[in-house]
Design brief:
By secondary structure, this protein is mainly beta. The protein has no helices and 30 strands. A ten-stranded mixed sheet has the order 4-3-2-29-1-30-21-22-23-24, with no helix packed on it. It has a four-stranded antiparallel sheet with strand order 5-6-7-8, with no helix packed on it. A four-stranded antiparallel sheet has the order 9-10-11-12, with no helix packed on it. The chain is globular and about 50 Å long.
Length: about 350
């Protein structure tokens, strides 16, 4: 089955003197990964030799790109300048998504092989130093915006596990439902305020109060599409698939696969502001960047990249309204992650 991951990562590409934005398009059907310049919509680089590549993230200083290989059950460490693998690190099982600590010293790898784990990679020695046991195979793993916690989501285990980043030990868990994509809202001091969690078989998202360690609300997406226009799926038990907090922290963007729409909620009050249609229903969302580093379109308020089943589109947001500005469809049957010149609290995945 085709699988996809979308992550927001921070990078200052070592090959350049200034920050650049790159879309990193991974390929579950092969062993290559393409780098795309979003300003020109052209392929500008290619990483080869990573069979069934899945998760991807970048070192904070931009010197490396990390890519998990399901085919080899390894983590590839790729030089961001040469785009060559410099080391393959063996893992405890089949990997899915990955995340990098804020100081760049650790890479956390979701291990989907039962009974489940989060492998911890030391980026100095480039060795696996620990496997954190979890209940159920892990598909998503995130480092919180303040870097203090690692959050792992299991679909099969029906559990969200919060891990202390200093000790690499689990400290609390939540849910009895398959845990899908998540997004994070922060307090004024940067600490985690709320987690917005998409769950199996729910057309919407749950709201988790991080300090209280409990779910405080559940919001169902609107049924605002004529019945004959609603896509009946199948959606692999994930009708609401893709969620992200905008870089300014003022809006939450949530996709609906049956409705082929992206819904926008205000933060912190979670009031519905509007929606934008996408060209097909099988979609994912990731908030990638603000107005900077987009060449001719850098004056736009912000750009939101939407991953579809076989293409990538860009959504322009101005004053709370949105419309498509261009599409990218040169690469099909791939997965994509975003290599961006900025660190944003957003994520997405698909199984």
């Amino acid at each position: 089955m085709r699988a996809a991951v979308v992550l927001a990562v921070a990078s200052l590409l070592a090959a350049t003197a200034s920050a650049q934005v790159r879309i990193v398009q991974t390929n579950s059907q092969g062993d290559n990964i393409h780098l795309i310049d979003p300003a020109t919509q052209k392929i500008v680089g290619e990483i080869k030799g990573v069979p069934i590549n899945h998760g991807a993230a970048a070192a904070p200083d931009g010197s490396r790109i990390y890519i998990s290989s399901e085919g080899e059950q390894t983590l590839h460490v790729v030089d961001a300048k040469t785009l060559q693998t410099v080391k393959k690190i063996p893992l405890s099982g089949r990997p899915n998504n990955i995340s990098v600590s804020k100081d760049g010293r650790r890479v956390y790898v979701a291990i989907v092989t039962a009974p489940g784990a989060v492998d911890v990679i030391d980026t100095t020695t480039m060795e696996k130093v620990k496997s954190i046991a979890t209940k159920g195979g892990i598909h998503n793993v995130y480092v919180t915006p303040d870097g203090r916690h690692v959050v792992a989501g299991s679909i099969a285990g029906k559990l969200m596990t919060v891990i202390d980043q200093k000790t690499d030990e689990p400290i609390w868990t939540l849910f009895d439902e398959g845990v899908r994509p998540m997004a994070f809202e922060t307090n004024a001091d940067g600490s985690t305020k709320r987690i917005f969690v998409q769950l199996s078989d729910f057309h919407g998202f749950a709201v988790v109060d991080f300090a209280q360690r409990k779910e405080v609300a559940r919001i169902e997406l609107p049924n605002d599409i004529p019945a004959d226009k609603v896509d009946k799926g199948p959606f692999n038990a994930s009708p609401s698939h893709g969620i992200g907090v905008a870089p300014d922290g003022r809006t939450l963007w949530v996709t609906s696969r049956p409705n082929a729409r992206v819904y926008v909620y205000s933060l912190p009050d979670l009031k519905l502001m509007g929606a934008a249609g996408v060209s097909i229903s099988h979609c994912a969302i990731n908030i990638i960047l603000s107005e900077r580093d987009l060449g001719e379109i850098k004056q736009r308020d912000r750009i939101f990249w939407i991953e579809l089943d076989d293409s990538v589109e860009a959504l322009l947001c101005i004053g709370g309204l949105s419309s498509f500005v261009f599409g990218y469809s040169a690469i099909v049957h791939h997965r994509c992650i975003w290599l961006a010149a900025g660190s944003f609290s957003c994520s997405n995945e698909e199984r």
